[in-house]
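Handoff note, outgoing to incoming analyst
You'll be picking up this chain. Sequence as last confirmed:
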Amino acid sequence: MDTGGNSLPSGADGVKRKVCYFYDPEVGNYYYGQGHPMKPHRIRMTHALLAHYGLLQHMQVLKPFPARDRDLCRFHADDYVSFLRSITPETQQDQLRQLKRFNVGEDCPVFDGLYSFCQTYAGGSVGGAVKLNHGLCDIAINWAGGLHHAKKCEASGFCYVNDIVLAILELLKQHERVLYVDIDIHHGDGVEEAFYTTDRVMTVSFHKFGDYFPGTGDVRDIGYGKGKYYSLNVPLDDGIDDESYHHLFKPIIGKVMEVFRPGAVVLQCGADSLSGDRLGCFNLSIKGHAECVKFMRSFNVPLLLLGGGGYTIRNVARCWCYETGVALGVEVDDKMPQHEYYEYFGPDYALHVAPSNMENKNSRQLLEEIRNKLLDNLSKLQHAPSVQFQERPPDTEIPEVDEDQDDADERWDPDSDMDVDDEHKPLPNRVKREAVESEVRDMEGHKGMSEHARGFDTNAEETASTKVLDMSSMPIDEPNIKIEQENMSKASDHMYPKS
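Most recent structure output, in case you need it:
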């Protein structure tokens, strides 16, 4: 399939969307450990590309307010959240039983600032949902989010807290139905499991299936009880290319949108489905991957874009930069601008990379069988489900931003019930920088951005839980975005070894 420049909207879909983008400058400092494939540094690389391509000036840039214990406990078990908050590399040897119980230690290691990292990426996803609920943007983006494997009581697959589930719970306060679509190469098992028995959330996952982590996501897994036929799984084999992928994606998602009629969509954009991923085995181009974003955008339904997997980090940054451009309706040049991570992208220094010539093991017959099976399942849903009349949780209140507030630490609405306590403050001094062969100087120059913010106060009660979710985000105003770009153009960084 020739996607060429077609991942950008045209015609009726060419209408610009208002986009909110969540980013915390500290997120790139978290380090899973030597040799671990998950590298939060990729989020900072993505942000640098967005800055130097000039895309930040087209979006509202927000620093997420960190999720608190009770925010996380709207889905996760109290004792699991308490464990994540208290565990440190120094104390983990004294808690071996707990480590085993919560599946923390190997794929999901204990590292400095672990809980702060979870608070940050979850805060961005829930903050995006709050913005969408209040109609303050059409598309919200949190590339640090999308950690779809985390379960209620345990970590899994590099994921500790399931920010996606938390964001969907927030969206359900405002919308009767929410659609979740997952294009990571791994099955979105944590999200599917959380909503397996409800008809208010439909989950659709396109993933490698067969002797591959996490081992779930058979086409026959369709949901249970009220949720029967509301879980769709699209199991794929190695080497799938753009044309084969969209032979399934577009008709299936088109039918889902027609039948389910969601009020909001969450799209997990895991970039490990790209060609050449360190852990993946698909053969999608960046344009083919971004075609999913373009297609979801075309329905003009409130859209939350999240990150996820992606382990060849130069390609992850390329992909999410391009997909931000697609969300905005802004054409992004293939020639990469000079920036502090420029050397990662040699020898071509281009945004797009050609797919490989690997074999596509997905035969047309197999694809047709999967497509027909899923479309048949969807035909059994006669119409969009209605929600039984009940008192709806109150909307999250968003106070006006105080433009005269210059104290970046003054993030709290005095009328809210949010307490300032030490456990929720960032731990910059305890966070390890990723250092590989050489000392890496990071973008510390941009920490001086002035951040005006006040808290969102949520007193809403989720229908499935009595626990309260409070979320806040920190708007960064336009002049400061320009300052950040100037600072970044002066910054210079050494290169990490290629992943």
